[in-house]
Amino acid sequence: MNQQIVIASNNAGKLRELQAMLKPIGLDAVPQSHWAVPEADEPHSTFLENALAKARHASRATGLPALADDSGLCVPALGGDPGVNSAYYAGREGDRKTRDARNNAKLVDELRDREDRSAFYYCVLVLVSSEEDPVPVMADARWHGEIILEPRGTNGFGYDPYFLVQEHAKTAAELGPEQKNKASHRGRALAALVAKLRER
Question: Number of C-alpha atoms within 13 angstroms, CB side, residue 79?
């Protein structure tokens, strides 16, 4: 019988990716919206602190083990921005699709005249067995690429159409879901998390 855990996110793109990656290892990942759990506040300046806050929030509300992901795009030429503010880089107004379009427009505008458009996606995953778990399991990973000025591809979400992955010569939005899940920051972080769980 599969172990049920709650995914501390309402982001449809993240949910699809995490559910696809967790199912083969026997984890039934159910989104927190199933229990009408609202999004947690993310007031912290680091991905790790935000992920931990989200995991504890979801576990508190459901009584289940909870997995939280905090991730974003970091651009060294912009001092690491959008960083932890990736989802709301150009403001909080509108639905996710509207915000994604606005975020991408701002990113491209800020990088248009820059020679260095290198970037990386960063992901940290935190799994808590309960709200008060003193030893949460954590894993993180980076996915390096560069920002292009014209979008390519229709898969993925967020900044994916502008994130060119050199080893594939494709954007993240041009990769198929299975290929992306193996190569991405989230896929690599989850593989590291699963390895830690197996050690236990």
Answer: 2
As a whole number of angstroms, the distance between CA 84 and CA 131 comes to: 23
Does residue 42 contact residue 70 with C-beta atoms inside 8 Å?
A: yes
pLDDT tens string 159-195: 999 999 988 899 999 999 889 988 999 999 999 998 8
DSSP string, 172-200: GGGS-HHHHHHHSHHHHHHHHHHHHHHH-
What is the DSSP secondary-structure string of 33-54?
A: GGGTPPPPP---SSHHHHHHHH
Other Cβ atoms within 10 Å of 153 Cβ, number: 15
Tell me which fold the domain 3-199 belongs to.
Answer: Maf protein (3.90.950)
Give the residue numbers marked as catalytic: 70
Helix or strand or coil: residue 102? helix
Distance CA 5, CA 3 (A): 7
> In terms of pTM, does the model score above 0.85?
yes
Provide the 3-class DSSP secondary structure of residue 10.
Answer: coil
Closest alpha carbon to 44 in 54, 36, 35: 54
Nearest to 160 by CA among 139, 138, 183: 183
Is there a contact between 147 and 107 (Cβ–Cβ < 8 Å)? yes
User: Among all chains, which residue has been given the structure tokens 């459901």?
Assistant: 62
Distance from C-alpha of 13 to C-alpha of 66, rounded to nearest angstrom: 18
168/52 Cα distance (integer angstroms): 32
Domain ranges of the chain: 3-199
